[in-house]
Design brief:
Protein name: tRNA(Ile)-lysidine synthetase
Bound molecules: iron/sulfur cluster, zinc ion
Keywords: Transferase
CATH superfamily: HUPs
Low-confidence stretches: none
Domain tRNA(Ile)-lysidine/2-thiocytidine synthase N-terminal: 49-222
Structural class: alpha/beta
Largest sheet: 6 strands, mixed
Number of domains: 1
InterPro entries: Ncs6/Tuc1/Ctu1, Rossmann-like_a/b/a_fold, TilS/TtcA_N, tRNA_thiolation_TtcA_Ctu1, TtuA-like_LIM_N
Domain 2-thiouridine synthetase TtuA-like N-terminal LIM: 2-27
Helix content: 40-55%
CATH class: Alpha Beta
Radius of gyration: 20 Å
């Protein structure tokens, strides 16, 4: 198949667009998608100080690279979550990329800096490691951004992630989560920093092409806790639908954003926000979950 843009030999075929691209035109398409998403949702501009959340996987590495190359003011933020070899390897990949590319990076280590242990917490609270881990990450994204004077936090969520999350939320009509599912979450409190997802229309496969073409090192392994997660099942189901009907994932997301999300807007606006009595960060309870985790571990040192 020929490249739809320059008619050279196409090397990447994107079924949902019924289009093939050569290497250069794929990069043009990719950057164009990112630029369109930033513009469509007024995510940020060149004056903004952007904190990019980096896990070391292909999506976040692609995001960091593309934004830096487009001239945005970006700083990476990596959180070592204490997940054995996975955390050690991903930290190495991220630090090495930052060093080679001359990019700024903030590293946080939840064990060393805050004494937190997701495994102990999971056992004590009888909650999954992912739910503990998710709360800690969300807290730190916002805290680091707020304390560092960043105007926006960008994450590498892709189209596959967004469609799988939406499917999960729709299946159980999670109104609160549906209200919050958007490529941009404006700040609703002076201590909450705006959150954006500039890659929400690009697939995992497209991000993979982007990092391979640009020879960006990334961690191939998934977090060991990702296997068996419900989101993986949703991704498989959606892949099956996409195979039969290309463009399903994108239609699912765009039609939800255009027609569905507004029905949950009042749920979002009704969430009452407070400031944690211990750390001052925004929470819906007296004391935020991050401070509660630290307290629980202090009280249960022997676990
Ligand atoms: Fe954390 Fe779960 Fe994601 Fe692993 S898969 S990084 S434990 S949320
Ligand atoms: Zn707190």
């Amino acid at each position: 198949m020929k490249c739809v843009r320059c008619k050279a030999k196409g090397i990447i075929y994107l079924k949902r667009h019924n289009a093939a691209f050569c290497q250069d035109c794929f990069l043009y398409y990719y950057k164009n998608q990112v630029k369109k998403n930033i513009k469509r949702y007024k995510m940020f501009d060149k004056k903004d100080k952007i904190l990019v959340v980096i896990s070391g996987g292909k999506d976040s590495m692609a995001l960091w690279h593309v934004l830096a190359n487009e001239g945005y003011s970006v700083t990476g933020m990596y959180i070592n979550l204490g997940i054995g070899q996975y955390s050690d390897k991903s930290q190495q990949v991220v630090e090495s990329f930052a060093q080679k590319s001359g990019l700024e990076l903030i590293v946080k280590d939840i064990k060393k800096e805050y004494g937190l242990d997701i495994y102990k917490l999971s056992k004590l609270l009888k909650r999954s490691t992912c739910s503990i881990c998710g709360s800690i990450k969300r807290y730190l994204f916002n805290k680091v951004a707020y304390d560092g004077g960043f105007s926006v936090v960008a994450t590498g969520h892709n189209l596959d992630d967004e469609a799988a999350t939406l499917l999960g939320n729709v299946l159980s009509w999670e109104e609160g989560y549906l209200a919050r599912q958007s490529p941009v979450l404006e700040s609703t409190h002076q201590k909450l920093v705006k959150k954006v997802k500039p890659l929400y229309t690009l697939t995992e496969r497209e991000n993979l092409f982007y990092v391979l073409i640009n020879k960006i090192e990334f961690l191939h392994d998934e977090c060991p806790h990702a296997t068996g997660a419900r989101s993986i099942l949703y991704k498989e189901v959606l892949n099956r639908l996409e195979e039969e009907s290309p463009g399903t994932k994108q239609r699912f997301i765009t039609s939800f954003l255009e027609k569905g999300r507004k029905h949950f807007q009042d749920v979002y606006e009704k969430i009452e926000l407070k400031e944690c009595i211990s750390c001052g960060q925004v929470t819906t309870t007296e004391i935020c979950s991050f401070c509660r985790f630290a307290q629980i571990l202090k009280q249960n040192k022997e676990v």
